[in-house]
Backbone:
């Protein structure tokens, strides 16, 4: 008689513990969420800023366990990281990988486990988008360069050095196309006067290639330099300094990271402007967006970063000195 | 020494000299701005950093070793000097501190290879990873500017119109040439690389010879890092990535045998100049990015093939 009472009581107790421990996958019923963040790489200041801001916001939220991975600029690694996230039971994945050809395969994995995905900077099929509008950001920088040429050089541009990243596919290419279109909105530059250079995404490669090509244009004294990011802009500036050609050029870059802001603040710097993507604030948008998705609240499917050209005049407004 | 013996002994260097001369003549004709003083100085600036590392890598390779950690040591030095400067340490002490850290990596490499008997490839691959990782940890993955104008003179300053790094580059090559050709330690390097076992049995402290080679290699990578930081005015943890391969390519192209025991620093100088000049010429002629990589790869492939041919022709037992 006693046994027949104990058995149902044990079953109820086990069920209660199981439910209480979070067996349900319904996000709204969970006290805590596990969010996976796969960073594009850890080798670029921009990406380090994105990761730091996500970590900070996740900690601030208080109910998030953040699982991190490094996609190492490689689609295959991103696929493997997606598997790892699934195995770790993440509730949502924030995916930062720029090889769009791997997007469908990554999404297929997450969709099979009903895991929502926020894709940074590169649209993935059925993922919520967050990130830069690369063409627009490029265009803002290009327009500033064109206006600079009109205001300081009477619209004369002898050469445009376009420091690119040809290995990295269409997204960086969109950014560079935006910059050149922005310049051409204000000044006419024939295609023969635009030099497309491989920056290899490093300071020293940018320094070397700019140093080399400067020697082919001894009579160019109005040179606009537009770059894929701030690191390559610093490399270009070093080359101009070494060649004694600082006065011949104006440099416009993308990202407005810490090093660029330091450079812009220097008196007499030839880094005139850098378009901000605010990677250090990505987390402030991404984590609330992730929580809205997980809590079943309404959210936007496409979320764009607001881009601003950072110059000496407004750098303290957007990034106050500490 | 008879003419035929001289030609036979110096065949790789003479051949490379001829190749380099042909390259310079071709580029002078094909690229309008190649043979200008500014461009020649640009080449000097560009090859100085790689050249300084290549000079001492020659010592390591002749001694029968290999140092893959040099690129990461450059990156670590670059990051260290900017961080120390940022914390208010006077730039001289910041530079000295960074060089000390570089030297410490060399000591680890040398001991790992000689005392622990770890394969040089594996040992220096490990320190490559450790030094690179430390550069990222210390900088949090961020690029920092270097403010000291005095320090920047090391990279962009000029003496009698010539860039400062070129003088340092020339000084390091001269020192390594004297060391290898006229000093007892130089002879020990060739002996250890040529026949390790015979040297050991004849009482030479083979471990000490190799440990010194690794120390010199890391110290020169540290010096190259300081010059690179001064040239760029900024310190990025991803600096010098892949330098180890460029350096080894230059050394092998210069006729130093990967199996050790043979080679000279003059050949390395020619190797560094050939690769640097080739890269510069391709830029001046606006050769497509992807083709540039193909051309550089072909140059390295030919160098390795030439090294292999030399080994096959060498009589057995030498």
Residues:
């Amino acid at each position: 008689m006693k046994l027949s009472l104990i058995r149902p009581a044990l079953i109820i107790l086990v069920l209660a513990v199981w439910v209480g421990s979070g067996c349900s996958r319904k996000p709204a019923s969970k006290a805590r969420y596990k969010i996976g963040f796969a960073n594009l790489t850890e080798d670029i200041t921009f990406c380090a800023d994105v990761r730091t801001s996500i970590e900070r916001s996740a900690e601030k939220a208080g109910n998030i366990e953040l699982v991190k991975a490094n996609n190492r600029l490689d689609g295959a690694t991103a696929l493997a990281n997606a598997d790892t996230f699934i195995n770790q039971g993440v509730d949502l994945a924030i995916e930062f990988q720029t090889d769009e050809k791997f997007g469908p395969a990554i999404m297929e994995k997450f969709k099979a486990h009903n895991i929502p995905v926020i894709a940074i900077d590169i649209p993935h099929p059925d993922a919520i988008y967050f990130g830069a509008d690369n063409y627009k950001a490029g265009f803002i920088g290009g327009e500033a360069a064109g206006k600079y040429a009109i205001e300081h050089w009477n619209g004369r541009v002898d050469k445009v050095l376009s420091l690119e990243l040809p290995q990295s596919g269409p997204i960086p290419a969109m950014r560079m196309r935006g910059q050149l279109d922005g310049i051409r909105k204000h000044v006419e530059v024939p295609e023969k006067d635009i030099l497309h250079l491989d920056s290899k995404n490093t300071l020293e490669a940018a320094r070397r290639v700019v140093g080399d090509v400067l020697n082919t244009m001894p009579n160019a004294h109005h040179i606009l330099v537009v770059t894929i990011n701030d690191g390559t802009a610093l490399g270009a500036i070093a080359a101009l300094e070494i060649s004694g050609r600082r006065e011949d050029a104006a440099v416009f870059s993308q990202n407005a990271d810490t090093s660029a802001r330091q450079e812009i603040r220097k008196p007499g710097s030839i880094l005139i402007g850098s378009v901000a993507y605010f990677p250090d604030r990505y987390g402030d948008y991404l984590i609330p967006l992730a929580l809205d998705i997980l809590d079943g609240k309404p959210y936007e499917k496409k979320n764009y970063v607001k881009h601003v050209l950072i110059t000496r005049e407004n750098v303290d407004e957007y990034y106050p000195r500490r | 020494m008879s003419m035929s013996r001289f030609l036979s002994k110096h065949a790789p260097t003479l051949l490379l000299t001829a190749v380099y001369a042909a390259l310079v003549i071709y580029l002078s004709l094909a690229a309008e701005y190649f043979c200008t003083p500014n461009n020649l100085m640009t080449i000097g600036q560009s090859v100085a950093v790689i050249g300084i590392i290549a000079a001492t890598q020659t010592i390591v390779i002749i001694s029968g070793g290999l140092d893959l950690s040099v690129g990461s040591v450059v990156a670590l030095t670059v990051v260290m000097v900017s961080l120390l400067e940022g914390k208010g340490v006077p730039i001289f002490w910041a530079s000295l501190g960074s060089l000390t850290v570089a030297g410490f990596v060399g000591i680890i490499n040398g001991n790992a290879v000689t005392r622990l008997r770890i394969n040089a490839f594996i040992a220096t691959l490990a320190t490559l990873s450790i030094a690179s990782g430390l550069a990222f940890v210390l900088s949090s993955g961020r690029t920092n500017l270097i403010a000291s104008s005095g320090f920047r003179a090391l990279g962009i300053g000029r003496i009698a119109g010539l860039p400062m790094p070129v003088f340092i580059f020339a000084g390091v090559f001269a020192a390594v040439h004297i060391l290898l050709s006229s000093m007892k330690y130089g002879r020990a390097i060739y002996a250890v690389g040529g026949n390790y076992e015979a040297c050991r049995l004849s009482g030479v402290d083979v471990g000490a010879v190799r440990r010194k080679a690794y120390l010199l290699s890391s110290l020169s990578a540290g010096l190259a890092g300081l010059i690179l930081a001064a040239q760029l005015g900024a310190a990025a943890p991803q600096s010098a990535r892949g330098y180890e391969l460029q350096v080894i390519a230059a050394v092998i192209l210069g006729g130093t045998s990967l199996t050790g025991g043979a080679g000279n620093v003059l050949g390395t100088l020619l190797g560094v100049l050939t690769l640097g000049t080739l890269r510069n010429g391709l830029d001046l002629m606006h050769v497509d990015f992807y083709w540039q990589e193909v051309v550089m790869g072909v140059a390295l492939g030919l160098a390795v093939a030439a090294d292999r041919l030399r080994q096959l022709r060498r009589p057995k037992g030498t």
About this structure: Chain A touches chain B through 39 residues (CB under 8 Å).
